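Readers outside the structure-tokenisation community will struggle with the description of the input data as it stands. Showing the layout once, in full, would remove most of the difficulty. For illustration, here is how one protein appears when written out as sequence plus structure tokens:
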Amino acid sequence: MSAEESEVKTKPFRGAQVLWPPDIPDDILEDIVTVSADALNGKNFEEEGVEIARIVKQHLDEKWDPYWHVFLGKSFGCHAVHEKKRFVYFTFEESNISFLIYKAS
């Protein structure tokens, strides 16, 4: 594998750097980034991280059917099995907070 192929690629999208290509439809991606930004806005991540994740998860479960999983932080890794076309990872440039969101039943 060449260095170019193994390089992680991101693209800017509504104030976030999204791991590209995302495995999620455009309408859901737009909704996820928007609701995540709104939930994060004005909150202290260190003190209210769980509440931020709860807000995003509740919105996604109501709008796009259960069962969404929401992780956020500054440095973490994950291995998860998810539904096809229901995974996205992105980082907000301003706060350097990353979100990993996927749906699994």
About this structure: The two ends are 34 Å apart (CA to CA). The chain has a mean pLDDT of 92. The longest strand covers residues 97-103.
